[in-house]
Design goal:
alpha/beta, inorganic pyrophosphatase (n-terminal core), 2 domains, 6-stranded parallel beta sheet, 11 helices, 12 strands, binds manganese (II) ion
């Protein structure tokens, strides 16, 4: 619960903050904002991420202070893990024996930490960080607002995904009043692609397949090399598949160097893709989830499509 989290923070001084590997806007935005909240409370705080900050998020306030590492070393009184349902998903070593605080909004969020604050009703982890800041009574800066607005904007699909409601807009209003600039935040994310990403999108669209109301595509390691695209350039490509009118579910497969496939799943709301991902050891939300599946590609595609067809509808 929020009060427990705040109480545990107040009793400690040095914090390390982290989130899941391949961080998205909510992971980055909520970690950066939470770090600022802690510092405003007079605490020492560092953000450490296994993969560092993806290019499109590097203009966020204090993004340049994020440490990229494989393990957490150093004297911290607690680790705060945001928007992440396990130690494993951080891909960081050195967390096991620390005091852990989990702040997450995923339905699949498991209580793995010493203190767990999981609220599936929050549209973004950033919303929870906002509540933490308010409860702590810290002054709310334009930099915090910018990080949290970006978390909110990206996790709601620019206020389009299911779950977006009047509270989402009330929060957005608070953040804009506190100094977040919506067009600036949007421009940094949606009008900041690399040439490699757009070339890779072309490859992905050439591989497009549909069957009934399910669409899927993939990119191979070779295609990524040919396009000079990075792993982070695959982010969001699945949404182009979902943008097809008659589709309810979209899947995007990225070949990993070891031959496994990283799968991103999106739903327009009729089918719960969190459960599909969980069937393969992954997780996420009803409308956006991910998992990894063994190759080869065509076998992986078939297994995931079968699971989608068997998948339970959203209640
Ligand atoms: Mn999130």
């Amino acid at each position: 619960m929020l009060q427990d989290v705040l109480q545990q923070i107040e009793q400690r001084n040095r914090f390390v903050l982290t989130s899941h590997a391949r961080p998205d806007g909510d992971a980055i935005g909520s970690a950066l904002a939470c770090c600022q909240v802690l510092r405003a409370m007079g605490k020492q705080a560092d953000v450490v991420l296994h993969d560092g900050v993806p290019r499109i998020y590097r203009t966020l306030p204090f993004a340049d202070q994020v440490l990229q590492a494989d393990r957490i070393a150093g004297n911290y009184d607690a680790a705060i893990i945001l928007e992440c349902d396990s130690i494993h998903r951080t891909r960081l070593e050195g967390l096991e024996n620390r005091f852990l605080i989990s702040i997450d909004h995923h339905v699949s969020g498991r209580p793995f930490a010493d203190v767990n604050w999981i609220d599936p009703h929050a549209v973004a982890t950033g919303e929870m960080v906002f509540r933490l800041a308010r409860e702590a009574g810290t002054p709310f800066s334009p930099e915090m607002a910018t990080c949290l607005y970006t978390a909110l904007m990206t996790d709601t699909g620019s206020f389009m995904f299911q779950g977006t409601n009047e509270h989402t807009f009330a929060l957005a209003r608070e953040l804009v009043l506190a100094g977040a600039d919506p067009s600036h935040c949007a421009r940094s994310i949606y009008f900041a692609h690399s040439v490699g990403k757009m070339r890779l999108l072309g490859e992905a669209l050439r591989n497009l397949n549909t069957e009934g109301n399910v669409g899927w595509t993939w990119v191979t390691q070779k295609q990524m090399e040919r396009c000079d695209a990075k792993e982070e350039d695959c982010e969001g490509l699945v949404n182009y598949v979902l943008s097809i009118g008659e589709l309810e579910v979209a899947a995007f497969f990225r070949e990993l160097p070891d031959g496994r496939l990283r799968v991103s799943l999106r739903s327009k709301g009729k089918l719960d893709v969190a459960q599909v991902a969980e069937g393969f050891g992954g997780g996420g939300h009803e409308c956006a989830s991910g998992c990894s599946v063994d190759g080869p590609l065509l076998v992986a595609v078939r297994r995931v499509l079968d699971q989608i067809r068997r998948g339970p509808p959203v209640q």
